[in-house]
């Protein structure tokens, strides 16, 4: 695909007021999410759940793209149309998760490296044929005693760059996702250090691999206090430190930053996004690519029952709308309460 086409897809994914829904949970992840609502993870239940999300009326006002899992890009909605077609007709771009998940990095206890490069060129071409316009690869970096190590950061950055270059060759916009986890008792300063080191390595590898920065999106963690840290940073602190960290290392050529939610509550993830956009004056669009923070309230309302679908869709629409407002720095507690 020509460079300008990659650029226009990347820009459309971060168009004003919109962001991305990550609905690409692997079979293991969705099983865990369903267990919490006491629903068995059968193919039919997974299909019904995704159908509920994707057919929610009006979400295209706030959702530019949806990341799918391999099973979902091949399956059909209740009305018989393939899911990529359902999305396409709403003006939502289908994306695809292409990594095969993190595995233990040998010799480095507590650290992971993401697999999935073997045969990736062929899989990308197939996904492109199934309607995908963009892709996602997630690397995970943990903070702990003596970690992250330089080896772990660089191994993941190298894999991300090889993936991104292959995506662009196949005409897919790569979403590059290096996630520094919020698990642990570390301070926000420690998270900032690890995030900065990770992103530095990622952009150095992306440039080595001749990735077109204008035709990709970055999906990082926000810079947060560790979940167990006794001193939790405030919303304005998170916004200021996250933006400060990103400004040091993310080139202005990248069209957008689409944050993951990483285990934050739905409302807090919206608050943080809102606070960053309210600061204004950024060289890139600041947007979202949330899974849990967009889905969790709707998942809890759905509970696997067809009769709960209208309520779950209303809740999902509301979350998407709140995050859409946060893209402008215009989200408020009154808006949050309006749908309660
Ligand atoms: P969360 O928003 O739940 O962190 O998920 C984002 C994602 O796509 C992880 O790869």
Report on the structure:
The protein is α/β, with parallel strands linked by helices and 340 residues long. The chain has one domain: Aldolase class I (TIM Barrel). Helices cover 47% and strands 15% of the residues. The protein is built from 13 helices and 10 strands. The protein has an 8-stranded parallel β-barrel, surrounded by 8 helices. The protein has a two-stranded antiparallel ribbon with strand order 4-5. Helix 7 (150-170) packs across helix 8, helix 8 (188-208) runs parallel beside helix 9 (235-249) and helix 11 (292-302) packs antiparallel against helix 12. The longest helix is centred in the middle third of the chain and has 21 residues, at 150-170. The model has no long low-confidence stretch (mean pLDDT 98). The chain binds 1,3-dihydroxyacetonephosphate.
Summarize the structure.
By secondary structure, the chain is of the alpha/beta class. Helices cover 47% and strands 15% of the residues. Strand 9, helix 10 (266-279) and strand 10 form a beta-alpha-beta unit.
CATH structural architecture: Alpha-Beta Barrel
> How far is the first residue's CA from the last residue's CA?
45 Å
Largest sheet: 8 strands, parallel, barrel
**CATH fold title:** TIM Barrel
Question: What is the percent of helical residues?
Answer: 40-55%
Count of helical segments?
A: 13
**Uncertain stretches:** none
H/E order of the elements? HEHHEHHEEEHEHEHEHEHEHHH
Structural class: alpha/beta
Query: Quick one: CATH class?
Result: Alpha Beta
Secondary structure: number of strands:
10
Principal-axes shape call: globular
Number of domains: 1
Strand content: 5-15%
Question: Spatial order of the strands in the main sheet?
Answer: 1-2-3-6-7-8-9-10
Output mean pLDDT: 98
Bound molecules: 1,3-dihydroxyacetonephosphate
Radius of gyration: 19 Å
The CATH homologous superfamily is called Aldolase class I
